[in-house]
Write a structure and sequence with these properties.
single chain; 7-stranded antiparallel β-sheet; 11 strands; 3 helices; alpha+beta; 194 residues; binds FE2/S2 (inorganic) cluster
Length: 194
Amino acid sequence: MLLFILYIFHKGVLLIMNETKCSNGSECDVNRRKFLSLAGWGAFFTTISVSLLATVRFLFPRVLFEPPMTFKIGLPENFKSDETADSHNVLFIDERWKDSQRVWIVREKGKIYAMFTRCTHLGCTPNWFPEDGIFKCPCHGSQYYSNGVNFAGPAPRPLDRFAVTVSDDGQIVVDKSKLYSVKEFDDPNSYIEV
Ligand code: FES
């Protein structure tokens, strides 16, 4: 299409140059008619092309592909540990899904749950300090115990948790479409027993 428009432009320039040369009108009239005909077809094809492009664009809308809300993290027996539990009954924090899913898997004595890595103050991502056994938020200094309970800074409540279930193949499934806050931590869907 662009080539066609350039071609018409080129013809128009030639016509103007020729017009300066022709003395009697007959040949110039023919050139002018040709040019007007080409320009007409050009306008026609341009309109058709733009309409076609708009239709194709309509058939393929811009869709935002978001990662799935559920994901598997493996079998419960993969989360065994010989470590000694801390004063909050936590054996270890698994950070494998922190970056990709914003989830910490917490292995407590007798249970596993999935904690949301979002500070309950203004939503920053806290960091886990295994040597201190606490989470610290880099934004305004909130601190949480290993079980996600807040004890310092402006955070108004413990870290939230996602639903966890065991699928047919025995793997633990984290469901990020269901969020539990502190008053719902006893809900049987907010943890699995091991
Ligand atoms: S966002 Fe974490 S303390 Fe403010």
